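Supplementary Data S3. Sequence and structure tokens for construct A.
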Amino acid sequence: MAVTTEKIVKAVGEARKASKKRNFTQSFDLAINLRDIDMSKPENRLNEEVVLPKGRGKHVKVAIIAGDELALAAKEHADMVITKEELEELAKDKKKAKKIANDIDFFIAQTDLMPLIGRFLGPVLGPRGKMPKPVPPNAPIAPIVERLRRTVRLRTKDKPVIHVAVGSEDMNDDDVAQNVEAVLSHLERKLDKGMGNIKSVYIKTTMGPSVRVEV
């Protein structure tokens, strides 16, 4: 990869230094500008997931849509459990469905409920890129939820830019830098020209100024 760990650590440190103290814990946000990719073509748009080695530095909300047995098993791990009956109720309450869709980061669902979810919640979850990941009724929920809580989504729409959170102020510079590396390495493998498709990379805190990462 063309960008070195030292350069990323340096940029993270500069972004932290340039950021004013706020009364909340800020995230570290990565902005990646792409080039030579025609985003007007849907097939060129990205919707990728990357597991951050050091986690996101904040709680990530995961909901499961499941039948009785799996719903019961998921209660101690997921932030929200939606039963088949509640799913049908949500279909009639679009306002509540949208609120849940905005509040929850990731959804997982019992495999045999996927057709119902597509019908009832597809119009709400689809445009947000949050359609559930299917899991079998006997799936071990804890490791699935734990992995999703360390996962970020890289999405592009009609503009060649990716915005993604890669940590929080509570994390040290090295850990944030490892997360940045994981994102860039994933893109290098995914993009046709690898790092050649990356025009520029910036890191900032939520309210702070952007610092360019040398690539």
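Construct B, processed identically:
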Amino acid sequence: MKIIRLISELRAELEQGRALSKTIGLVPTMGALHSGHISLVERAVAENDITVVSVFVNPTQFNDKNDLKNYPRTLDADCALLESAGVDYVFAPEVEEMYPKPDTRIFSFAPLDTVMEGACRPGHFNGVAQIVSKLFYAVEPDRAYFGEKDFQQLAIIREMVAQLELKLEIVGCPIVRESDGLALSSRNMLLTEEERTRALIISRTLFESLEFAKENTLQATKSFVEEKINAVDGFKLEYFQIVNGRTLQQIDNWDDCDYVVGCIALFCGKIRLIDNIKYKEVK
């Protein structure tokens, strides 16, 4: 496995493989890797001849400077994990390499980016689009892999690829959870032991709502989740929305569409966590 810091070096390495008609898979990450990331990496390794994993904490997608400052950075441990998973290249650039000058591009993904995370974190998805498009241009992958825990992000990246007419496949991969149900997240390591235990209520409530939804209306299900979360000391609910899984717009009834997802964001203490659950999905 080779660790690369410069775009020019990365392109030169990949061009050799591309000349031999080798396929390239990309897994973009911000590091602090966990089993969820590794599940993406393993799929990329299985489906491509060459696998690139980027490790870059992107400043333009943070609208909270303290969040950026406190985001965990564990490059040495990340590289050890990635090497054992069979990765060929780790791309770990400095900020100056990705942003030699300010990126002034403004993206619009309306209405996908005007709700949920887009409403709560102004500018977040513009920053995501800036860095992910830069990575796509640098790597020119055949496939790129993203986790469904960031459900809204996945939809927006697919829309960005369509808008920019990029020739690559976006592969969405299922949420990976701890054995006790907590969705894996790099932010979990910032939770205290007490907060970590409390955070289990998030996934537990979502899974309970699956059963509740079978006999109740959408609005009653939404209230069920909100009331359970709001009752927890130390939680601050930002949103729980039940949406059309394609448009991300809120729906009123279970029969409004054939792909229904419940998306949640909340603060557990000072740590912001997200999760989602699928109520209806066409297989």
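The longest helix spans residues 193-213. The first strand starts at residue 2 and ends at 4.
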